[in-house]
Amino acid sequence: MSGRVFEVLQQMLKLRKDRSVAQSKLVKAEYERVRAFKDQIESYANEYESQWMVAAQQGDTVLQLQTQANFGQNLRATAKSQQPEVTALKSQSREALDKALHDAQRLKTMQNFLANRQRKQLLARGVQEEKVLEDVLQARYRGR
Question: What domains lie within the chain, and their CATH numbers?
Fold first, then answer.
């Protein structure tokens, strides 16, 4: 194959790697955002439960205690409903990272192949030049 074909293939692999790295970063950012939101809701639920306990010890009305308890339960339910999305995004983030790493490895392999190919071509050219130089020197020596 010509060198140009390998260069085009290398560029395609680089574009693919860049795209998969960008996708991995996007998915990871979305995962972090959703996870942080879920954690924040759980934190609010914990605060409400603490406030509920203090209110219960201070003797708030049953209606007030029930309202606070319901709100805390709703926060917990919301946080719990976020868990499947967090889990799915975590999995997608891992898959996107694996793809980016795989694409980076493919690009590195192609770059190593091209470097070895170029080294061999330079070595072959050097050997050929030595042979030509040797032939010229032998021709001069015979011509004397």
Answer: 3-143 (1.10.287)
Contacts of 68 (CB under 8 A, 6+ apart): 48, 51, 52, 55, 60
Statement: the pTM of the whole predicted model exceeds 0.85: no
**Of the candidates 13, 18, 92, 78, which has an alpha carbon nearest to the alpha carbon of residue 45?**
78
Cα 113 from chain centroid (whole Å): 24
List Cβ neighbours of 85 (8 Å cut-off, separation of 6 or more). Answer: 34
For the segment 90-138, what is each residue's pLDDT rounded down to a tens digit? 999 999 999 999 999 999 999 999 999 999 999 999 889 888 888 888 8
Which one-letter amino acid corresponds to residue 46? N
